[in-house]
Amino acid sequence: MAAKFLGQFLLERGVITAPQLLAAIEAQRASNPLLGELAVRKGWLDEAQARRIQQRQRVEDRRFGDIALEMGALDQDRLDALLEAQKTGRRMLGQVLLEQGAIDAARLQSEIALHRADQEKAKHALESVIESHPLGGLANSAIDLCARLFPRMLASQCLPAEVLTPDDLDAWPHVAHVQVQGDHPFGIALAADMAAARALACALLGITPEECDDALALDALGEMVNVLMGYLVRDVMTDDDAVYRALPPDATVPAAALAADTTRSLAIGMGTQLGAFALLVDRPA
């Protein structure tokens, strides 16, 4: 059993169509801009300032507003106004589907209840496997990082869906794997199909699909895994004296091969509104 976003759940149950889901997702995104986008629209920041703050977010794992205040780019009154505008404008997917006439209120409430029950079952199934695995702690740290960082980096929520087997990973042929060598060696990888890799790259780099080729998509996948590795090192290396060296992203080893020894690796299917990908953690033999 895999955890799913509400839209995917409704689509798979035949409650809504794919065009209805895409239209609702686009409308929801438009209603929930990032703080930097709002500030640029209001003329309180220019695009270069917003990008610099977003770049610092990736490095420092801090809120956009806190960094903007520290830099003097925004004052507290303007930040409060941006946060209120963001909160007021935000709409849930179910609300958008209702407004667009894709579903009626009674059916929506019924489906939401079913979806919540389905999510709970999937969550317990995932947690039971992770908790019993030798790399469970590392995997949980990586999952938490994805959930925290990717909404900032990609403007998309990120949801752990299910534990994957090596055979499952054949569906994600493109991989970026980074390994840390030193006192506590470990690795982390992201794997995706090309459609998802290109969508993730466009969101990460702020470019259109026409501007993104396959090579750029794979470079972006490597950049994403580098960001995750930087934070994992900080979270996992509790010994201040630990020595480590992160190798450059490697795209030559298939994800299925990285996960072949299931006692030394753990792969999690992750869902985003941009497409699914696999998150893998491993320790060298």
Structure description:
- α3 (35-42) runs antiparallel to α4 and α8 (105-132) crosses α9 (136-154).
- This protein has twelve helices and six strands.
- Helix content is 55%, strand content 14%.
- The radius of gyration is 20 Å and the shape is globular.
- The chain is an alpha+beta fold.
- A hairpin with a 3-residue loop joins β2 (174-182) and β3 (186-192).
- The chain has helices spanning 6-12, 18-31, 35-42, 47-60, 64-71, 76-89, 93-99, 105-132, 136-154, 194-205, 214-236, 255-258, and strands at residues 158-164, 174-182, 186-192, 244-246, 265-272, 277-282.
- The model has no long low-confidence stretch (mean pLDDT 90).
- Strands 1-5-6-3-2-4 form a six-stranded antiparallel sheet.
